[in-house]
Write a structure and sequence with these properties.
single chain, Rossmann fold, 6-stranded parallel sheet
């Protein structure tokens, strides 16, 4: 079987779960074509991402001329399908968060991607995210009469389902993937119950090579790590507020923010304002190997998000036998069991966050180790990439 993957930007540091899924499908004998809109000029840190960049075809790399040529070719050879897709693109722009011109660009992108997928002899199209990649996949399906599906991660699709026309995309799809039971419930809100059987749960998976490393004892030093893009929804600003409370209470701790993003400057300003430079450091973007090492060097991972799907970094930390502090939102409570393999606190509540961190840091190492082992057992049973890829492959083949 041959499947074409449609992704907005690939590879990407924060999208390692897509790479893992593709490689797992290929191990199952499915040939996967990678088509992305952007990402050919992004500097990659991880060797696996460097290899994926070479394997990926980029729709926008050669500019507008190639897109227009591909659209003209489709229009001349498949005029009825092109007009049908054009009408659909116009329909998708009604009461949307982006004007018509964007949806016409998605149609041009679909024409180019369709040409490549036909050369690949693709039998199915799959997109990641319910935003513009799923629209491109849907338009490709109309133009080429090839079935498509897409994976919804959230939270963007849950915040703007009507603007993104999620129900239209599900209705036309062969199936849609949710990465958690919470995600499935949110999609069920926006489609008729007759469409519910299309919604499948396939968890993001971890490769055994990530967590099958030499056992590393918990460090004695009270060290925390937060891994993720520096942005509003990950809650790093709240985490710095909580760190200030801990420092004022004379709690001994070190915090590493592993990642980068659009709010780095604001985070750095707050760290400086609270004189936390000796306690809090920011690494910038780092490789998967470096992320793993930072997790292993810490007692606890903390991720105070207030908008999520189900963060892969939580799975990674648990697979390395580290308990996790996170929030009662989205699919997170499906994985973290409060007091058993981690702690859950109220999203957006700095006081609760600081108290939860203080409780975790005061937990005896022996208890932390027990919680880490429980975390490992939970995540390995639920998030094995080969098991989850087999589920997805089965949906492709049906």
């Amino acid at each position: 079987m041959r499947v074409t993957y449609i992704i907005n930007q690939y590879p990407k540091v924060s999208h390692t779960f897509i790479r893992r899924e593709i490689l797992a499908l290929e191990r199952l004998g499915i040939e996967v074509q990678r088509i992305a809109m952007r990402g050919w000029d992004e500097k990659q840190i991880d060797i696996d991402d460097i290899n994926e960049q070479v394997k990926t075809q980029y729709v926008l790399k050669d500019g507008a001329f190639l897109l227009l040529f591909s659209a003209l070719k489709v229009w001349l050879t498949k005029p009825f399908a092109f007009i049908t897709a054009l009408k659909l693109a116009v329909k998708m722009s009604f009461k949307a968060d982006r004007p018509l011109i964007y949806h016409l660009i998605y149609l041009l992108e679909a024409c180019q991607a369709l040409s490549w997928s036909q050369q690949f002899k693709s039998t199915h199209i799959h997109a990641h995210f319910g935003t513009n990649p799923s629209e491109v996949a849907m338009l490709m399906s109309v133009l080429g009469n090839v079935p498509y599906s897409f994976t919804v991660h959230g939270p963007e699709e849950f915040d703007r389902p009507q603007f993104l026309k999620v129900s239209e995309k599900i209705h036309r799809s062969k199936f849609v993937v949710a990465i958690s039971s919470f995600g499935k419930s949110q999609l069920q809100r926006w489609v008729d119950f007759s469409q519910w059987q299309k919604i499948k749960i396939v968890h993001c998976g971890l490769e055994s090579s990530f967590y099958q490393v030499d056992s590393t004892a918990l460090p004695v030093k009270p060290k925390l790590v937060c891994v993720g893009r520096l942005c509003e929804q990950k809650g790093q600003l709240l985490l710095i507020e909580a760190a200030k409370k801990l420092a004022d209470a004379n709690v001994d701790f070190e915090l590493v923010l592993a990642g980068d993003g659009e709010m780095r400057q604001q985070v750095e300003v707050l760290i400086s304002q609270y004189a936390l430079q000796d306690r809090v450091t920011i690494t910038g973007w780092i490789s998967s190997e470096a992320v793993r090492q930072h997790i292993l060097n810490s007692q606890v991972l903390v991720l105070p998000s207030f908008a999520e799907g189900l963060p892969v970094v939580i799975m990674e930390a648990m697979s390395l036998k580290r308990p996790v502090i996170s929030t009662y939102i989205a699919g997170i409570p499906e994985l973290i069991k409060h007091g058993e393999n981690g702690w859950l606190c109220v999203a957006g509540d700095v006081e609760d966050l600081s108290q939860t961190i203080q409780h975790a840091l005061s937990t005896p190492l022996e208890k932390l180790q027990e919680m880490g082992s429980a975390a490992y057992a939970s995540v390995i049973a639920r998030h094995n990439v080969d098991v989850e890829a087999a589920k997805l492959a089965s949906h492709f083949r049906q």
